[in-house]
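Input record (one chain):
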Amino acid sequence: MDICYNKLFKILIDKNLKKTEFAKIVGISQNTLAKLSKNEFVSMEVLVKICRGLNCTVDDILEVLPESNTSH
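The corresponding structure, as predicted from the sequence alone:
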């Protein structure tokens, strides 16, 4: 299962927020921000912080992508 945080970054653009400002506002580290940028998994605690900081739901900030079945 793959996760995509493009929805989150679209919200940041719409709110005219830089990634570093966003990280300070919601209380996440630069390492966590880097994970989000690379579409890597982050803890539920991080997702809750983001949702509280942006007043949104998890569904608003991430997308679960279907697994790609590559059979040879």
